[in-house]
Amino acid sequence: MFGITPSARLRPSPYFEATLAEGVTAFTTYNHMLMPTSFGQPEAEYWRLINGVSQWDVAVERQVQLQGPDAGRLAQILTARNLSKCQIGQGKYAPLCNHAGVLINDPILLKLSDDLYWFSIADSNVWFWARAIAEERGLNVRISEPDVSPMAVQGPHAEAVVAAVFGNWIKELKYFWFKETQIAGIPVVVARSGWSKQGGFEIYLRDGSKGTELWNIVKAAGQPFNIGPGNPSWCERVESGLISYGGDTDSETNPYEVRMGKYIDLEFAGRCDRREGPAQNKGSRSETPFTRNYYGQPCAHVRRI
After folding, report:
1. What is the overall mean pLDDT for the chain?
2. Do the Cβ atoms of 190 and 179 come closer than 8 Å?
3. Whose CB has fewer CB within 10 Å in the chain, the N or C terminal residue?
4. How far is CA 98 from CA 93, 202, 251, 272, in A?
5. Dihedrals φ, ψ of 181, to 5°?
6. What is the DSSP string of 16-58?
7. How many CB atoms lie within 10 A of CB 176?
8. How many whole angstroms separate alpha carbon 121 and alpha carbon 126?
């Protein structure tokens, strides 16, 4: 056995005390925070997700907030997905690529208003990247990390539990759509989303001092459905074909190599293009469409066979 030394570089989530009370037995580090990975009963936790309802502390899915007149412009520069039809209250899976077309994160984008966007990110520092791009382009936008911490409720009974907390209106939410609301005076954003294929919601807490209170509200509503603690399940995500940034990718992976091609619009990529195909290169490559970077130079990661 070993422990994790406390450090200012490693933050607990707003749900940390609640997960301790639930009997958490293991953590991993993610975005400089602690994320529960086990509550000591891995098989029971798996079947709870598959057949019932599971409550997760996923506060590590931090938000990169873009706010200001150029927030929408920066959001589109950062992601290779076409955001032109994204509406207020809508979320989209929005892969981020660097100038060489390499995947550097695969967040969910949430459009809260025309001048306010969140990227709910996987495990990499997107704040530095976003600030660098904004400064490079001279954009009028502020990039920050807001006090926003998601909790996930996942599984076949998740909708019934979340409806018991917030009301039946949540049943009308389409996938990745969300609504700003509150419960017991606690401000939240409720989205139909989550890192499983079993159905569910993510509740974005907007006041970190209310983590335990919100956890207990959801837990109480879930008692008729035998809710219990859990965490993103590696077994379920493999069975469901979900991509894990950093687990299925490396420093040279582009979106096409991990089945993200349908989320990429090369007109908006702004990083690489595929103007020069295999015929012009007198060779072929393994599922790698990018050949030239933003400056017209050959991409170093192109793999030829």
Report:
1. 89
2. yes
3. N
4. 17, 28, 11, 9
5. -155, -165
6. HHHHHHHT--EEEEETTEEEEEE-S-HHHHHHHHHHS-EEEE-
7. 16
8. 8
The reported pTM is 0.88
What range does the domain containing 138 cover?
A: 63-144
- How many other CB atoms are there within 10 angstroms of residue 58's CB atom? 22
Domain final residue, candidates 240, 274, 293: 240
User: In the 3-class helix/strand/coil scheme, how is 247-300 assigned residue by residue?
Assistant: CCCCCCCCHHHHCCHHHCCHHHHCCEECCCCHHHHCCCECCCCCCEECCCCECC
The answer to whether residue 273 sits within a structural domain is no
Whether 47 shows a pLDDT value over 60: the answer reads yes
Q: For residue 109, which amino acid is it?
A: L
Using only C-alpha atoms, the chain has a radius of gyration, in whole angstroms, of 20
Pair (164, 204) in one structural domain = yes
Domain boundary pick from 83, 111, 144: 144
Whether the predicted pLDDT of 210 surpasses 60:
yes
